[in-house]
Design brief:
This protein is mainly β and about 140 residues long. Helix content is about 0%, strand content about 75%. The protein has a single domain, classed as Lipocalin. Strands 1-2-3-4-5-6-7-8-9-10 form a ten-stranded antiparallel barrel. The protein starts with a strand and ends with a strand.
C-alpha cells in the first residue's frame, strides 16, 4: 500500500565548505517484491520541473530513476562503478559513478540512505559527491 511521505534530500559536490543543497518534498513510499520505493515530483527549485523521481531501494543498493523532462538511471552499490546517460532539455551527459560508501537503513516505516560517490561527467574531472536521503512516513 502506498503511503504519504516527506522525502528530504541533501547533496554536495567537491571539497568545498559551501552548505549542501537541501530539498524537502512530499511523495509516496511503498514496498513491492522486497524492494522499497520512494517517489516524488521534481520542482522548479531542482531545475527539473516535469520530472518524476523514483528511488528503488534494496538492502545493499539503490537506483535513482528520473523520467519526464529529465531522464536518468543512476545505480549505487558499494565499490561498484557504472555508467549512465543523463538526458536533460539542454542535452545529454554521460555519467560515470563509483560508489565509495553506502549505508542503507530503510524499512516499512521509512528510513535513510547515505552515499559517497565519485562522479565523472562526460569525461571531466572526478567530483566527490555525497547524497543523503531521509524518508519519513506521514500519518
Amino acid at each position: 500500500m502506498k503511503t504519504k511521505a516527506i522525502i528530504s534530500i541533501k547533496s554536495s559536490q567537491g571539497q568545498s565548505d559551501e552548505e549542501p543543497i537541501s530539498i524537502v518534498t512530499p511523495g509516496t513510499f511503498y514496498e513491492r517484491n522486497n524492494t522499497f520505493y520512494a517517489v516524488y515530483e521534481e520542482t522548479e527549485i531542482s531545475g527539473m520541473k516535469g520530472t518524476t523521481t523514483t528511488i528503488k531501494i534494496r538492502p545493499s543498493e539503490f537506483l535513482l530513476l528520473r523520467t519526464g523532462t529529465t531522464n536518468a538511471r543512476m545505480h549505487f552499490r558499494k565499490n561498484d562503478k557504472n555508467a549512465s546517460m543523463y538526458d536533460t532539455p539542454y542535452g545529454t551527459l554521460q555519467l560515470e559513478i563509483e560508489t565509495t560508501e553506502l549505508n542503507i537503513n530503510v524499512n516499512e516505516e521509512g528510513g535513510n540512505i547515505y552515499v559517497n560517490y565519485d562522479m565523472t561527467v562526460s569525461g571531466q574531472k572526478v567530483m566527490p559527491t555525497f547524497l543523503e536521503i531521509d524518508i519519513k512516513i506521514v500519518e
